[in-house]
Amino acid sequence: MKYNFKIIFLFFLLNSIFGCKNNVDLILHNGNIYTVDNEFSVIEAIAVKDGLIYETGTNDILKKYHYDKSIDLKGATVLPGLIDAHCHFYGLGLNQQEIDLVGTKSFDQIISKLKNRSKNYKTVIKARGWDQNDWDIKEFPNKNQLDLLFPNIPVVLERIDGHAYLVNQKALDMAKINNDTKSSNGTILKKNGELTGILIDGPMSLIDAVIPELSKSEKKQALLDAQEICFKHGLTTIDDAGLSKEIILLIDNLQKKKDLKIRVYAMISNSKKDVDYFLKNGPIKTNLLNVRSVKVYGDGALGSRGATLKQPYSDDMHNHGKLVTSPEKINDLAKRLANANFQMNTHAIGDSTVKILLNTYSEVLENKIDPRWRIEHSQIIDLKDMNGFNDKILPSVQPTHATSDMYWAEYRVGSKRIKGAYAYKALLEKSKVIGLGTDFPVEKVNPFHTFYASVERKDLNAYPENGFQFQNALSREETLKGMTIWAAYLNFEEKEKGSIEKNKFADFIVIDRDIMKIDIDKTPQTKVLKTFLGGQLVYSSTKTD
């Protein structure tokens, strides 16, 4: 047999030229891609392989690799997958199974909703989202109408911030709450010596203990419902601020089965049983789940006057608020968590609570290197205490709280204390990083509302004209970092997510406008076109993908 050596040589030459190309799974090109790397680079193209960013750069990437699929972005803007640094993911899912009271303008509207929906509930009527500050009569409601309408089934109506219940007499009876019931970590509100049905903070747990348990399938569905909503809004990682051992292990199980795909930074609820379990068994760290922190409640909420203040409320001079967790218990837990190298993330709204935490954290962390302990909300801060924040004590805040609360917050704390409220720029200057979230479902899930509130300090009606305490607005770049790389840093995950860089997870989103350049008033209307997690399309606004 004769061989044509010229043909053979040409074959090997072509094979060596084209065979040297590596295969990648996906290339996105012709884009306006904000990497959020150290230089805040803007690039044109991304190559993805095995769920990771393989290379970033110009459209020349198309010539360098064989690829299974390519997407021409046609100039669309791409951001790293967004991270909500403080939310209630499981709670959002549960809300899909409850009556929604958000936006109700009176207690009569609530009663109307309950009448229309109550037939769907056999063992308990649950609803969430009321806020008396949105009503003409800005007072807590009472249970009288609930008792008349629903004498034989427990009714539990949760305030929008999650720090108060309105319940009927049936629920009180089931929980054995009466005029003699005492509470040291919250309030059982009475009027003229009679129970009103309002329970603030601690006593709410007495109701929780007697409400019928959800089935496992209902809990699973809540998680899947929440995931769908989050992907639609461009969230690829969520920090759930307080989950039980049971729900954390359910999330882990669903993720391993590939039913649940979203990445979860799960803060352990501060119950002795749950904390003991994880401190004994150690952290959980997978590509999808990170469990290494405990969520603690320092105090309650400002709206229900449960936040703990150094001086009395300006609109209730006999009330300082109440701590949910005593300073002694905070200190004991802090020492225990520091010794176990777990992160402590504590809810603090009032200036008194913030001061307690700054003192405790500073003492416990004195010899710790890079602990990244968090003060969740960091809402009302005595200006003298601002220097307590540093590279060990980090703020996690929610910009839409500022624009929701601004209508009534000054009535609660007065003109002097309000100057240290929602002070995001001042906090950033102290800690050099700040995590941004929504606290959903207290606020809406939409992260572009967060972006607008952070940059403009206005609500969605563009009020107030000059921004609420605009000196504490963040820049667009700082805001995007707070929703991506800085949020990842608060989670000890900045080496694997939060920016579009080689070897990080291929988590990114495509949006319909350039939020870094357009008129800021147009940013809240931003739509997510596509959400990718690990290089896989998990949401598309069109049905053709």
Describe the structure.
This protein is α/β, with parallel strands linked by helices and 545 residues long. It has three domains: 16-75 and 501-545, Urease, subunit C, domain 1 (Roll); 83-87 and 216-500, TIM Barrel, CATH 3.20.20; 89-208, Diaminopimelate Epimerase, Chain A, domain 1 (Roll), CATH 3.10.310. It contains 18 helices and 25 strands. Strands 8, 15, 16, 17, 18, 19, 20, 21 and 22 form a nine-stranded mixed sheet that branches. The protein has a six-stranded mixed sheet with strand order 3-2-7-23-24-25, covered by helices on one side. A six-stranded mixed sheet has the order 9-10-11-12-14-13. Strand 10, helix 5 (144-149) and strand 11 (155-159) form a beta-alpha-beta unit. Helix 3 (89-95) packs across helix 8 (216-232), helix 11 (327-339) packs parallel to helix 12 and helix 13 (399-405) packs across helix 16 (447-456). The longest helix has 17 residues, at 216-232. The radius of gyration is 25 Å and the shape is globular. The mean pLDDT is 94.
Tag the structure with descriptive keywords.
single chain; 545 residues; alpha/beta; Urease, subunit C, domain 1; TIM Barrel; Diaminopimelate Epimerase, Chain A, domain 1; 3 domains; nine-stranded mixed β-sheet; six-stranded mixed β-sheet
Work out the strand percent: 15-25%
Number of helices: 18
- Low-confidence region ranges: none
**Level-1 CATH class name of the largest domain:** Alpha Beta
**Rough outline:** globular
How are the secondary structure elements laid out?
Elements: H1 5-18, E1 22-29, E2 32-34, E3 42-43, E4 45-49, E5 52-57, H2 61-64, E6 65-72, E7 77-80, E8 82-87, H3 89-95, E9 99-100, H4 107-117, E10 125-130, H5 144-149, E11 155-159, E12 164-167, H6 169-174, E13 186-191, E14 194-201, H7 204-208, H8 216-232, E15 235-243, H9 245-256, E16 263-269, H10 272-281, E17 284-285, E18 289-297, H11 327-339, E19 343-347, H12 351-364, E20 373-376, E21 393-397, H13 399-405, H14 409-417, H15 424-431, E22 435-436, H16 447-456, H17 476-482, H18 485-490, E23 508-511, E24 528-533, E25 536-540
Parallel strand pairs: 1-6, 2-7, 8-15, 9-10, 10-11, 15-16, 16-18, 18-19, 19-20, 20-21, 21-22
Antiparallel strand pairs: 1-4, 2-3, 4-5, 7-23, 11-12, 12-14, 13-14, 17-18, 23-24, 24-25
